[in-house]
Automatic annotation (TrEMBL):
GO terms for molecular function: glycerol-3-phosphate dehydrogenase (NAD+) activity; glycerol-3-phosphate dehydrogenase (NADP+) activity; NAD binding. Sn-glycerol 3-phosphate binds at residues 117, 147, 149, 202, 255, 265-267. One of its GO terms (cellular component) is cytosol. This is Glycerol-3-phosphate dehydrogenase [NAD(P)+]. It comes from Pigmentiphaga humi. NAD(+) binds at residues 11-16, 151, 266.
Length: 350
């Protein structure tokens, strides 16, 4: 392999594994799984049977459960890239482990990109704020990778377009070099906040669309939820410092369309089952993979309230998931809202 870029992927769930497989086709790549048994099984079978059953992983992909192996893999590389494949709940711990590993192994030029789509459930912080705190003083370059991308399709080599956002052009270049190729297009952006808000909120909107479809509300209702959902995403994003244009791109509208309408979506699945009358506990109990929108919805609602931003669809999703409001009642409440101009500002006094 004629490359001086070496790649490490922390987290062997469906997305971490899919990205590791894509990177391993062009660059020396090591995937870290938390459980030794899981790492052994992936390495032997060349398949991640728990998360991506039936998808063959490249022979060149290295697999470990030793965090130090991951840093040793990167040490001595001309340029190095770490991809975090953990959900937002694991972001703080992962960033701390990376910061400690960088110091322990004397890495001085690491780029780290996270892929989680959500907000910290307790504080409402976006992932970049979690990373900023953990990476302070380490010299690590940081950024986010997002966009409409079901892991299974990417792992199968089907075409996809992603966006990497970072203030660091060097990081954007490394991520592009690691993944851009025959089946993956990588676009760059400097709007970290916009990309993160889009990724987090599209999951909440996908739950809403799933609920609507589960209730049999029809295609008109789905289109209305996608469009008004995008308006909510954009309003909150702009209030937090994002560029409005980002929300009509891959990480906004693109990912919203995919997740709200694609049957591979875990968030849409949660909504569908709720709409069909199943309880949230039963739905989550049957799932082995994360549906980020569930924990994210109340954090988004609280953040929006703090900023005085109206987010009726998010409020409705929270009411159905956590306040015992029936899906039908939540729809009635949404429909009973006062008429307004489509592009009217939704912040008191704005
Ligand atoms: N699966 C997909 O199609 C895509 C997922 N994403 C995002 O990537 C992130 C990861 O998602 P998936 O790989 O799909 O999830 P997953 O449920 O398939 O796997 C999550 C992985 O993280 C580990 N993990 C779970 N909780 C953790 C915690 N608290 N601390 C540390 N590690 C933990 C699990 O052991 C597992 O290896 C999510 O934020 C998701 O929204 C982004 C794009 C596509
Ligand atoms: O983020 C995703 C697609 O871009 C995956 O969506 P789900 O988490 O709903 O499966």
């Amino acid at each position: 392999m004629a490359t001086d870029l070496q790649v490490a992927v922390l987290g062997a769930g469906s997305w971490g594994t899919a990205l590791a497989a894509a990177s391993a086709r062009n660059h020396p790549t090591m995937l870290w799984a938390r459980r030794p048994e899981q790492a052994r099984r992936i390495a032997q079978a060349r398949e991640n049977a728990s998360y991506l059953p039936g998808v063959a992983l490249p022979e060149a992909l290295l697999v470990t459960s030793g965090l130090d192996d991951l840093f040793e893999h990167l040490r001595g590389a001309g340029r190095s890239l770490m991809i975090l494949g953990v959900p937002v709940a694991g972001m703080e711990q992962a960033c701390r482990e990376v910061a400690e590993g960088v110091q322990r192994h004397g890495l001085d030029d690491l780029a780290v990109v996270w892929t989680c789509k959500g907000l910290d459930a307790a504080t409402g912080r976006l992932p970049h704020a979690i990373a900023q705190e953990a990476f302070a003083g380490t010299g690590i370059m940081a950024g986010v990778l997002s966009g409409p991308s079901f892991a299974r399709e990417v792992a199968q080599g089907l075409p996809v377009a992603l966006t990497v956002a970072s203030a660091s052009a060097e990081l954007r270049g490394r991520v592009t070099e690691a993944l851009h190729g025959a089946a993956i297009r990588v676009y760059g952006s400097e709007d970290v906040i916009g990309v993160e808000v889009g990724g987090a909120l599209k999951n909440v909107m996908a739950i809403a669309c799933g609920i609507g479809d589960g209730l049999g509300m029809g295609a008109n209702a789905r289109a209305a939820l996608v469009t008004r959902g995008l308006a909510e995403m954009t309003r909150l994003g702009v209030a937090l410092g994002a560029q409005a244009d980002t929300f009509s791109g891959l990480t906004g509208l693109g990912d919203l369309i995919l997740t709200a309408t694609g049957d591979l979506s875990r968030n849409r699945h949660v909504g569908l089952e709720i709409g069909r009358g199943k309880s949230l506990d039963d739905i989550l109990g049957d799932m082995t993979q994360v549906a980020e929108g569930v924990r994210c919805a109340p954090a988004v609602r609280d953040l929006a309230r703090r900023h005085g931003i109206e987010m009726p669809i998010t409020e409705a999703v929270c009411a159905v998931l956590f306040e015992g409001v029936s899906p039908a009642e939540a729809v009635s409440r949404l429909m009973a809202r006062n008429p307004k101009e489509e592009t009217a500002p939704s912040r008191p006094g704005a």
